[in-house]
TrEMBL record:
This is Transglutaminase family protein. It comes from the Bacteria. Residues 159-219 form the Transglutaminase-like domain. Pfam families: Transglut_core. PANTHER family: BLL5557 PROTEIN (PTHR33490:SF12), BLR5614 PROTEIN-RELATED (PTHR33490).
Length: 264
């Protein structure tokens, strides 16, 4: 399916402020960028670099006063995500070197403290995909999705205890539980078609059978039509906007819809 995605950030800056944004999707597995637009009002110089996780990052200095960032893209997405029951656990000694970082505890994913819970959840399941799917199901049925309870400091361990949170918290918990079983796991942020209420979304991926698979504990079943913006160890690596000064976000608007046919 071709999706039209957009995100608008409205700021007010009380001083000229450095910003790092992560708002451009890139073509890759499951998505192809057909057309995109990136508008700054007022216009200011902007540069781009690729971070250590392969994400496109935009660097700029905001002007004083009102400032708007508007991005939109038309993206060809996969209607379904791949599933692979029975896909095997990859031995640590056989993992690609670049995936080893996703085995380690991180700021929001205390995998070194959640091993007992992980083993309770997976029981005698076959190591690999089947374990991760049991983790996804356990989070889906045991953690209540509710706004206003968690905050930017909430970690996987907090969510496991409180059993309440939002997509960010569901993802952190899934990642931490996978890592506690020595399964590499990473956080993903982006867009999901027909998400309700519409917002930017978070889910996680696990490295099994020699590749990454998508898992989303907020959803009843595997849903495709996703657009990835960024990957990282946890939310600290995938912030869509990082500021270094006196600038305040006034509003954020996100939309995802079926794109009309276009001539490329």
């Amino acid at each position: 399916m071709k999706l039209q995605i957009s995100c608008q950030l409205d700021y007010e800056a009380y001083s000229s402020t450095p910003l790092i944004l992560m708002l451009r999707p890139r073509s890759g597995s499951g998505q192809w960028i057909i057309k995109e637009e990136y508008i700054l009002e007022p216009s200011v110089p902007i540069t781009e670099y690729t971070d250590i996780y392969g994400n496109l990052c935009q660097r700029l200095l905001s002007p004083l006063g009102k400032f708007t960032v508007h991005t939109s893209s038309i993206v060809q997405t996969a209607d379904e995500i791949d599933v692979a029951p029975g896909a095997e656990f990859v031995l640590i000694e056989d993992l690609p070197a670049e995936e080893l970082i996703y085995l380690l505890p991180s700021r929001y994913c205390e995998s070194d403290q959640l091993g007992n819970l992980a083993f309770q959840i997976v029981g005698n399941a076959y190591p690999g995909y089947d374990q991760v799917e049991l983790i996804r199901q356990w989070i889906h049925y045991n953690i209540t999705y509710q706004y206003g309870f968690s905050n930017v400091s909430t970690s996987a361990k907090d969510t496991a205890y409180a059993k309440i949170g939002v997509c960010r918290d569901f993802s952190h918990l899934g990642i931490a539980l996978c890592r506690s079983l020595s399964i590499p796991a990473r956080m993903v942020v982006g867009y999901l078609y027909e998400l309700n209420p519409m917002d930017l979304h978070a889910w996680f991926e696990a490295f099994i059978g020699g590749r990454w698979y998508t898992f989303d504990a907020t959803q009843d079943y595997p849903k495709g039509n996703r657009v990835v913006l960024a990957y990282g160890r946890d939310a600290a690596d995938v912030a869509l906007a990082t500021q270094f000064g006196s600038i305040f976000l006034l509003d954020m608007r996100v939309s995802v819809s079926v794109a009309e046919d276009i001539t490329v």
